[in-house]
Amino acid sequence: MTGTRTIRNLALIGFMGTGKSCVGRLTAEHLHLTYLDTDHVIEARAGKSISDIFQQDGEPAFRDWERRIVEELTHRDRTVIATGGGLPVGEGNLDSLKTHALVVCLWASPEVIWERVRGHAHRPLLNEPDPLAKIRQLLAVRSPYYHQADVLVNSEQRSVREVAMHVLHEFHLAHPAGR
Ligand code: S3P
Predict the structure, then answer these.
(1) CA atoms of 24 and 163, how far apart (whole Å)
(2) Domains, the chain, ranges and CATH?
(3) Whose Cα sits closest to atom 2 in ligand 1?
(4) Which atom of ligand 1 is closest in space to residue 122's alpha carbon?
């Protein structure tokens, strides 16, 4: 990564079902920061659900939305950002997040992810005959991106609160003034 880096925000990346939203909300509450979920921003702007964007406009249109939101995030301050699972793969997205945020990746195995997301119908990428295989395949592609996070936190066998406390600790180390 090049250029200057001022950590004003906290960005959570990681696969679907690793707890980014729950951990993000709790962390934001503790830090008295604003919580922002990139998927929610996209849905509000597009005026339709993520599933409808995928279905009607296609995945590349969704990834364009993500890229535009990532650009806008460079102007944010005091925000906990929960990102969509595929966002770090978009060209330049991770580097951009790193210019203003501590990037923390939440991690879980494919089996645990599947246990957590099964029964949720709103994730278009997992509308597949063999969702577990799809999770494995996507994780294999995405792992190199997730591993570029500043901090990797295992979210398995830990409560949301425990993971959030771990994330808070890391954020305080990186951003002592934000205590
Ligand atoms: C996606 C993850 C979803 C959402 C979209 C695509 C992905 O977000 O952005 O369905 O590519 O992994 P969550 O990780 O919050 O479920």
Answers:
(1) 10
(2) 9-169 (3.40.50.300)
(3) 85
(4) 10
